[in-house]
Amino acid sequence: MNVLLDNFPEYRDGFIGTVSITAISSVIALVLGVAIAGFRVSPVPPLRYFGTAWVTLLRNTPLTLLFLIFFFVVPEILFPGMSPFLLGSLALGFYTSSFVCEAVRSGINTVPLGQAEAARSIGMTFAQTLRIVVLPQATRSVIPPLSSIFIALTKNSAIAGAFSVTELFGWQKLMSDRGYEIMPVFIWVALGYLVVTFAISGLFRLLERRMEVAR
Amino acid sequence: MSGVSVTKAAEDAAPAGDDLVVLSNVNKHFGALHVLQDIDLTIARGEVVVVIGPSGSGKSTLCRTINRLETVDSGAIAIDGKPLPQEGKELARLRADVGMVFQSFNLFAHKTVLENVMLGQVKVRGTDKKAAEEKARKLLDRVGVGVQADKYPAQLSGGQQQRVAIARALAMDPKVMLFDEPTSALDPEMINEVLEVMQQLAREGMTMVVVTHEMGFARSAANRVVFMADGKIVEEATPDQFFSNPRSDRAKDFLSKILHH
Questions:
Q1: How many domains are contained in chain A?
Q2: A133 to chain B: nearest residue by CA?
Q3: Three-state secondary-structure class, residue B29
Q4: What is the pTM assigned to this prediction?
Q5: Is A133 close to B108, i.e. CB distance below 8 A?
Q6: 3-state helix/strand/coil string of B136-179
Q7: What domain range includes position B228?
Q8: Is residue B157 part of a domain?
């Protein structure tokens, strides 16, 4: 008990850090993931190639390596002086966007082809067809895998701790440096993550139920 | 066959003489299958052309090439004098002028019946919502499903869904309507309600291309029957000529199989 109460401000900061990085990179992953999924089913070949390259590259790179690139290469050539928090969010968001893209694409494939044909036959462009007809119907089947992807993202955010981003997992290192017994520390860290991941799965369960009614 | 027989618009709806849809020397392959072979077909404004033929003869594919849901390997297709453009905004604009009714209805499952008929008007034509709704309700009344306006497609019978699909296509004020086996997925008792809507459209002078197995409809509503087999147009004739005195052996064989039992 002591370890938590005596070091509560640091624990709280870590928890808030984890929630923030999770929230920011989730938004990045969702926006990019949906856009790239659109690219991957686009009739324009260069967009399709770009989408495929994006997914292949990011999905197959170890996340730690991606973090290294974002922290040591990206600031050198692109954004000098960007905060570790933002760099971490970008790395995690880009990485997860490849998984979101594939989940969304599998959702798109569950929508019967006739829906898109009907949309095109009344004169909708490809983008309109996707946005107005296909994606809304794909959402329902994408929600369960998305839930898993965002829970994985939450846990992956621990890697950011190694790159001087304040987050929950980093608290554990701080505490062991201060000489606390390791078991209780781990339990408190795990509970902190559980709060976030349970919140995510609860949110998605709610969404799922909402969608059910809409049909 | 359905018992629909309304006095036909045929001869009296004398086509205005100008060509609305022109297919010239169209070829298409599905892998090794040569599904459309040197197709030449001209459809005049106001004309009702019924395409019949055995399964796999390429008649559905032919219908779908007209608004480029299927691309062709060679040959040219023009609508109202304009050749079909490549996929893109221009093609989308042209498709808006070509109504299409599918075998499996393909109503937007996540939209109500009313929204289905409004969507194209609002998103493609840029009509304001109020005018679009008014027109949608008028069209739904016309095809006899006005009271279902606020339901979702899945809550309607097949016949009702197909009539909504016709209303959705009509909402775009199309120059020509394509029907790809519109009654093939329907229970027998629902076929007539759809055919009656189509009959009415034909009488009003809509240019129509209808792929169907409904010989009764072909007899009563068509200006011309196109008989396809094995990817070729084997015979073109008026319905009277075709059904009473087919010239080709292939057509005779086809008719003997479907008309006498």
A1: 1
A2: B108
A3: strand
A4: 0.86
A5: yes
A6: HHHHHHHCCCHHHCCCCHHHCCHHHHHHHHHHHHHCCCCCEEEE
A7: 18-106+175-255
A8: no
Domain membership flag for residue B148: no
The count of domains in chain B is 1
Residue A60: exposure state from Cβ atoms within 10 A (0-12, 13-18, ≥19)? exposed
pLDDT in tens, A145-177: 999 999 999 999 999 888 888 899 999 988 989
Contacts of A117 in chain B (CB under 8 A): 69, 100, 102, 106
Is B8 part of any domain? Answer: no
Nearest CB among B87, B106, B110 relative to A117 is that of B106
- By residue range, what is the domain housing residue A111? 2-214
Select from B90, B93, B106, B184 the residue whose CB has the most chain A CBs within 10 Å, as the one to mutate to test that interface: B106
Tens-place pLDDT, residues B9-48: 444 444 445 899 999 999 999 999 999 999 999 999 999 9
Q: Inter-chain contact B98–A125, Cβ cutoff 8 Å?
A: no
Question: What is the rounded distance in angstroms from the CA atom of residue B213 to the CA atom of residue B188?
Answer: 12
Q: Could you tell me the CATH number of the domain that includes residue A34?
A: 1.10.3720.10
**A43 interfacial to chain B (CB closer than 8 Å):** yes
